Amino acid sequence: MGDKKNNTARLREIKRFNNKKYREHTKLSRRKNIEPSQYLTEMKSPDSILEIENLCTYFYTDVGTVKAVDGVTFNVPKGKTVGVVGESGCGKSVMSLSVMRLLQEPQGQIASGEIRFRQSSENRAVNIPNLPLKEMQKIRGNEISMIFQEPMTTLNPVFSIGAQLDESILLHNKGISKKDAAKRSIEMLELVGIARAEGIYKGYPHELSGGMRQRVVIAMALSCNPEIIIADEPTTALDVTIQAQILDLLRDLKNKINASIILITHDLGVVAEMADFVVVMYAGRIVEQGTASDIFHNPQHPYTVGLMKSRPTSHGQQEKLYSIPGSVPNPTDLPDFCYFKNRCEFCMDICGQKYPPLYKLSNTHKAACYLCKDEKSKFEGGVFSE
Questions:
Q1: What is the pLDDT of residues 190-210, one digit of tens each?
Q2: Residue 212 domain-assigned?
Q3: For the purposes of burial, counting CB atoms within 10 Å of the CB of 223, is it exposed (0-12), middle (13-18) or buried (19 or more)?
């Protein structure tokens, strides 16, 4: 009986806390006449087009606060591809939705941190969480675009392919005629390798295969020549041949328009082929980051090592694939110590004390593990350097 009362009191306290957060967020989102000084900022690295610093994105639910992204820091250099990897539920997609300001509000909120974006068209840098919605709508789909995970849910089944492609072009190109928008849409369909583009333009999503729909989504994301492309699992549920075509397409298009890519996936093979830099996430935090060579040839965090061991190999003799033992901790009740402690075969006494900081292993390589403590010094930032 006492446990039931305690649980009821706890749920009431959570509800009061959530309501407070909802009211604060609603008040902020309804602000008018926001001065530019509140969202204009400066980039810390001259080579970066996007800098994410200490980003915390929380979901205020009925059972507690889910810390989906908890203190993530990294940057995206101009013209480079940054791969973000980790198990399902580690916060990869929530991080990308935070950049696009597409969180389900007011339950999901950017609690703290900065997302600095260099706007080449305006010759300025802005802090995305502080941007008014009207200003964010000018960036979203225009300067930062996203290839969503499932094309069938991205595309509206009741509108033609052409109507959905034209919408983005007409929205972000004032003064363009519908005829010119249609011409641009057909050109984009041809650019992504779709044969019979004019016929597909008039068709509907359900008439296309999975690979064709994914190409349409990519064409939609690239229709306004964005500075950054966020690709969230762009090859999920596609067969191997189509996956290779999609990756080749993304690589070629990135080079053509000199765009940067944030590639979100749990497929290490895709990351090895595409990424210049790699960020490994676990339970909402970065556990290791560096160049693709650093991560694949010299992984330092036990979680990264486990991910590498779980890959199938063509020359291996193992009877079954390796899997990391245990499970991810409850996101509403994360411990103060290392989140990977109870799954780690290299666990030490110090791992049960304070959460480890990122330690610098080289100019580009960092890992959040006490195994790296004795050899290298603590690293406070999260910026890649060439």
A1: 888 888 899 999 999 999 888
A2: no
A3: buried
